[in-house]
């Protein structure tokens, strides 16, 4: 499965899986059903509940079409509006746990969502065959709208629960050193531990140093390097977080 590196708020990269074609198709179907339900409800209200069908009497074909377009207008702008409001998701994408992001790691903007929406006309040509072929042959499962806007759709699903990835063995008599760690979130700690573990495996001292400096900056800590090395500091931070959040074994 393809992966994409996203730059986090801690200024480190973390890899996400690219959403599969199947996941994107299911999200599309869910959104499509929501739009169909909206149209049915609106037309039912217009013609049956409020009995406004008489307003169409005597109108020419173009005027009648204009009325229908106004009634169903939210359906047409559904993707671009909801992706903008929900930070790259629609109800279908949210249910499938997938999201639109920029390839370069930055948060996609309204302009990016707009470009994706405009290219939807091409991607849905021939019952969506154009977009489907594009996703199959492109590196990051991108349809034409994604390629044009420099975006991709990632999977937010994680095979390992966050509480497991930040789990750390600490003894019952453990005494924490930095109560400031409670300012961090589970996701912050997962990123810290994941990147620290990877750096240790390849002895990447530069990453360890940057990670240590970043943590000190966020928590506003000043540590004497003679009393505690960068590796010791990060280890203590991870254990302290487990201690204060009750995630110790």
Layout of secondary structure:
Blueprint: E1 3-7, E2 13-17, H1 21-49, H2 61-71, H3 73-85, H4 91-96, E3 98-102, H5 110-123, H6 125-137, H7 144-149, E4 151-155, H8 162-165, H9 186-201, H10 205-219, H11 230-245
Antiparallel strand pairs: 1-2, 3-4
Helix pairs in contact: 3-5, 5-6, 9-10, 10-11
What does this structure look like?
- This protein is mostly helical and 249 residues long.
- It contains eleven helices and four strands.
- It has helices spanning 21-49, 61-71, 73-85, 91-96, 110-123, 125-137, 144-149, 162-165, 186-201, 205-219, 230-245; strands at 3-7, 13-17, 98-102, 151-155.
- A two-stranded antiparallel sheet has the order 1-2. Strands 3-4 form a two-stranded antiparallel sheet.
- The two termini are 33 Å apart.
- 26% of the residues are buried.
């Amino acid at each position: 499965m393809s992966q994409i590196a996203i730059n986090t708020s801690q200024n480190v990269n973390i890899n996400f899986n690219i959403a599969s074609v199947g996941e994107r198709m299911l999200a599309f179907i869910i959104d499509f059903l929501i739009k169909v339900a909206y149209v049915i409800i609106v037309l039912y209200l217009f013609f049956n509940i409020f009995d406004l069908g008489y307003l169409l009497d005597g109108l020419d074909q173009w005027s009648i079409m204009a009325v229908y377009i106004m009634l169903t207008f939210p359906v047409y702008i559904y993707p671009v509006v909801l992706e903008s409001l929900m930070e790259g998701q629609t109800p279908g994408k949210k249910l499938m746990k997938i999201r639109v992001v920029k390839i370069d790691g930055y948060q996609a903007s309204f302009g990016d969502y707009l470009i994706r929406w405009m290219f939807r006309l091409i991607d849905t040509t021939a019952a969506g065959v154009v977009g489907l072929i594009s996703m199959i042959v492109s590196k990051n499962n991108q349809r034409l709208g994604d390629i044009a806007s420099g975006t991709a759709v990632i999977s937010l699903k994680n095979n390992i629960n966050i509480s497991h990835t930040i789990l750390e063995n600490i003894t019952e008599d453990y005494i924490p050193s930095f109560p400031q760690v409670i300012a961090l979130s589970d996701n912050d700690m997962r990123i810290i531990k994941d990147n620290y573990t990877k750096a240790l495996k390849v002895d990447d001292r530069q990453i360890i140093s940057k990670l240590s400096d970043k943590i000190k900056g966020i928590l506003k800590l000043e540590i004497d390097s003679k009393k505690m090395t960068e590796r010791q500091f990060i280890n203590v931070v991870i254990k302290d977080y487990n201690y204060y959040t009750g995630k110790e074994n």
